[in-house]
Amino acid sequence: MAEPIWSKFISPDTILEQVQNTAPFLKLGAAEEGPLIGLGGTPAGYLRVLASAKAVDTLEDYFALCCSAHQATVATFVPTDVDSKIRGVLWNETRDAETLGRMAAFSLQMRDWTVEGISARVTIDAGLGPVSGHNGEWFSVASGGLGRYLQLGMEEPFTSQIEAELEREAEAFRKALRTPGREIDTLLLAVSITHNLGDLDQGIGYWEGAAKHSAQKQRFHRLAHENKTPFGGIFQHIANLYKECLSAEGHRHYPLRPVKALRQSPALLLPLGPFLDDWGATIGGSPLLTDGDRAEILDALLRGCKKIDNQLGYFRALAGWQSAHARTFERAAEGLPGSGKKLLREPELRKKLSVPRRSFESSYVKRVEALRTKVR
Question: Is the pTM of this model over 0.90?
């Protein structure tokens, strides 16, 4: 009996367990019949695939499952570890045109999947739609597929789609930058877009043969790293803004990963830092959390403040919590272990927690206002 296609990778059961562990709030529904690769064509198509995870039979079905698991968890506290598979490994498992065609069609459906209920790291433009890290995950999948098509000398469907998404995100940034009052949105877009360009590079990193010398490589690669002319150089401004103001917030939030209480609802998902005052207020007031949960979260945030150099988001979460819900903050502090109580007493931390939100954000706003005079 032949081994299943996924035998050298993570099993479907394990992938589904990982999804349910980090996002138990997802409603997967009933399993559907037929190939998983055909279930992705709705805004929540990833849920249909996950519900039918046990039916994985082919390479393209396993690819659909990995893409769906990544969609569901990448903005949670513990993302599933399938990045390399959907960016390159599974694309390189086949040369069959029909198989690649089904994988490509599924990849293009991914671009239209909703992030509602699975991410708080979204910036919405009324005309251009949401921009989030999920767009970067799509970049990495699409660029992985593009590289395989180019390597095999096959006609590909990805170049125009990648081009269009880059243009959309660039225009979303320009619009926010031009609009007084949207300075924080501008900064959040800089975070998402810079990370998305990194994801695009991740997919390109799997390219081999002719793909490595292609026009697409020249146009799409390292847009956040080099002074390149495509897209009017806007991505250089975006990347510089990120590097100068926000790069310390680009860590993986390891201190919060063990806190299972944070996984129980999309209402507790972490937004983009460092502007976490509102999230801190949510933690302080959420009826989903007990005093014990809050003590564990407070301890994790305090340890993160100490261990992650130069980040400010956790300080702002604590400040927002303390400002909006002083009583739950005090009760959580009483439940801290001795090491946490010691951290909470440190003068430098107390000083940072005392900074008003408006004062904290004003320096960031001024940086965007300065950039506004340079970019048209």
Answer: yes
